[in-house]
Amino acid sequence: QTKTGIALLYDEVSENAYDIRLKLTKEVLTIQKQDVVCVSGSDHSANHRTVTLRRQPVGGLGLSIKGGAEHKVPAVISKIFKDQAAEQTGMLFIGDAIIQVNGINVESATHEEVVHLLRNAGDEVTITVQYLREAPSFLKLPLGSPGPPSDHSSGTSSPLFDSGLHLNGNSTNTAPSSPSSPIANEPKYEKRWLDTLSVPLSMARILRYKTGTDKLRSNAFEVLALDGVSTGILQFYTAQESADWLRAMSTNISDLTLQNMKMANKCCSPSDQVIHMGWVNERLEGTDSSQLYKFKFLALKGSSFYIFSTPPVSTLDWVRAEKIYNLCEVLFKIHKLWLADDCWLQANLYLGIHQDFDLEDQRPYCFSVMVGHGKSHYFNVELGSELAVWEKSFQRAIFLEVQRTGSKTYMCSWQGDTLCFTVDFALGFTCFDSKTKNVLWKFKFSQLKGSSDDGKTRVKLLFQNLDTKQIETKELEFQDLTAVLHCIHSFIAAKVASVDPVFIDSQSIARRYMYSN
């Protein structure tokens, strides 16, 4: 299915916006601009057209103009009146910029100067025009065919109002002159939407924030292709239109990502499948405000969580990831959601989400992935639906890895002894001497009743003895305590999911948000 619609292309430098037409297919977003094309009678370029108008006693030249050099645009035809001189030529269109009047160049003329020239040009006026493909939206030119007749005329002409040249002007001719009409062998012109830019959506990303800020664009966003080609800033007339287009483009990008994943998975073993991948923004800690976030491409594949600066295209690309972490040793955590128009802080209070980042960051849909040695990566996505997918994908990838791995063993120590600590999906926790392999203690997952740690290397695990019902404390010291704690969390969560999948789903913050909306 193809989606089409009218939008504006916003130019940040000139601060002007231009009318464009968007055409969205499953694989490509095409930007179209209006232009006048020669459809028959001649193959010469429609860029410049020279037309002779005969001023009529009633209706004059039959057109109105807007704009002028004082507004950094040429004078543009803003209205063409039905059955009058301009329309009868078949060669003039709303949006045509007037280049010359009777051989005099008016590209740099003010609005008043062009009006004066046209009104005093005599009964036969020869004008050269060129269609202005990027007419600023402040001119408010209609996009369709010539509008209905109008008797509009203003005492003083303004660049933002039509100056009517359908009036008689200074015509000396009292008898009706023959109408301006196209000659049989004259070229025929039409105004059409023409493709000007095509942006492939495979691995494309959507930018909703103003560059280097946390300010969300109002009803606007930009689409950036994998090769760096940008649509520019697409501005929509209403919030609803913006949301509809954002959803449609995001869906198409996601569908193409799914296709890419299926292609990649054909080359991978069953234990090394891609579960999910896509663009996110990573917040850079301790940098200046102009570089708050940087684009990263994340992937969950096999036993690993990958962070790339650019997407992996070939099999060899997977080894050039910036970071690779074992999925058993990471912890996925949602930080922020917008539940309504009010502050995200209310969502935190309502859902009991722990917030450990500063309150200055105003982006919704944030999550962090906590990794070994107490470090973490803080990410933001553009849509709530993306957040829900990442939450579910991390959960699935971690559970699959736990079940595949079966167990993880870590070296540790206590009171000078070198020990081994094993987390096993079937058996629970076991601690044994690294030299003699003698088992010192073992407990099921259900016996773990609590834990505390010093935030560095030491942890206390509290187990309930099944016979005495007493709590036994086991203290251990690890080189990378965070990784071990994350591993324990992953194994217990996977165990619960295997017993009660509904419980895990009920804990999904992002999906609860999705359904509430």
Automatic annotation (TrEMBL):
A GO-annotated cellular component: cytoskeleton
Family matches, as Gene3D superfamilies: 2.30.42.10
Record localization: Cytoplasm, Cytoskeleton
InterPro entries: PDZ, PDZ_sf, Syntrophin, Syntrophin_4th
Keywords assigned: Actin-binding, Cytoplasm, Cytoskeleton
Keyword Metal-binding: no
CDD domains: PDZ_syntrophin-like
A molecular-function term among this protein's GO annotations: actin binding
Record-annotated PDZ domain positions: 50-133
SMART domains: PDZ
Positions with biased composition (Low complexity): 142-160
The keyword Metal-binding is annotated on this UniProt entry: no
Region (Disordered), start-end ranges: 142-186
Record family assignment: Belongs to the syntrophin family.
Protein name: SNTG2 protein
